[in-house]
Amino acid sequence: MRLLKLVPDNTNIGFVRLRYWAFGLTALLTIAAAVLVGVRGLNLGVDFVGGVLIEARFPTPPSVDAVRSEVDGLHVGEAGVTTFGGSNTLSIRLPLPESKDEGATNRLVKNVQSTLEAKHPGVTFNRAETVSGKVSNELIRNGLLAVFLAVLGIAVFSWLRYEWQFGVSTFVAIVHDVLVTLGFFALTRLEFDLNIVAAVLTIIGYSINDKIVIDDRIRENMRKYRQMDMRALVDLSVNETLPRTVMTSLTILLALGALLIFGGPVLRGFTAAMMLGVIVGTYSSIYVSSSLLISLGLTPHAAPVEKKGKSGPSSGAERIR
């Protein structure tokens, strides 16, 4: 039985020759995303802007749209209503009341609860929580700090593990991945909450995993083919790792696609961020970070000599052609 091969053997795609187009597209996407985030901003959820969270459990699965209409009819702000843990339980999120009165929040919660009790006899309330502005500011700060430290730590690791050019190229590519994801949320106005911060950190992890695989192959080929032109060497390395890259990305996208369709509104933003991150991360790994090594002046002579058996440069040159 023949094995399924998404990428044929001896694939020889000239990725490097498109590097200037890729650099231009990357710069355009990064600048556009930064402008979108700066001008439109993110549609921050209750986790970040503060608000009221009410968890209600109904005797039978309710209509999410009907409950949302009932809460919106109270004119207490735009309500975010989603299923939580099961079809019988709904999570209701509301903005904090404009009144600074300490009892305003309690009145808001009681108003919502009494309305739902009248419309849905037997409903119970598992919890009612308030996220203050101070707590939300701390969450924003900690979320940004987590993303920044993750990107910085990965860049330093690449620098120490390989050469400084690998650290710089990795840093540029991951910043691009994160900014494009944030720009997507600024454009679509999907709610940005702690789940999306988790998605961004997961995207960083996926991107660095993909980039490390390619960087390892580049470093290995630098030791093997010390006289090969760097452009040919990068193309060789990317083509050698292409089957693994395509298979990994495709399987993740298939799983995320199922999650996007059947996961419900609670996971929609997380899944959308992950799908975009996988696509953007794969693109930046193939076209940006690897080709950027050439522009940064990396050459095969920078790698230490391989102590074990070496392959001649002619075999590498023949392979890339």
Structural class: alpha+beta
Distance separating the two termini: 30 Å
Shape: elongated
Compressed to H and E, one letter per element, the order equals HEHEHEEHEHHEHHHH
Oligomerization state: single chain
| Number of helical stretches of at least 4 residues | 10
> How many β-strand stretches?
6
Q: Which properties best describe this structure?
A:
321 residues, disordered C terminus, alpha+beta, two-stranded parallel sheet, four-stranded antiparallel β-sheet
Provide an overview of this structure.
The protein is an alpha+beta fold and 321 residues long. Helix content is 64%, strand content 9%. The chain contains ten helices and six strands. The chain has helices at 19-39, 46-49, 64-72, 104-119, 133-161, 164-188, 194-224, 230-262, 268-295, 313-320; strands at 43-44, 51-57, 80-83, 89-94, 124-131, 191-192. The chain has a four-stranded antiparallel sheet with strand order 3-4-2-5. A two-stranded parallel sheet has the order 1-6. A hairpin with a 5-residue loop joins strand 3 and strand 4 (89-94). Helix 6 (164-188) runs antiparallel to helix 9. The protein is elongated and about 80 Å long. It starts with 18 loop residues before the first helix and ends with a helix. The model is unreliable at 306-321 (pLDDT under 50).
Q: Layout of helices and strands, plus pairs?
A:
Layout: H1 19-39, E1 43-44, H2 46-49, E2 51-57, H3 64-72, E3 80-83, E4 89-94, H4 104-119, E5 124-131, H5 133-161, H6 164-188, E6 191-192, H7 194-224, H8 230-262, H9 268-295, H10 313-320
Parallel strand pairs: 1-6
Antiparallel strand pairs: 2-4, 2-5, 3-4
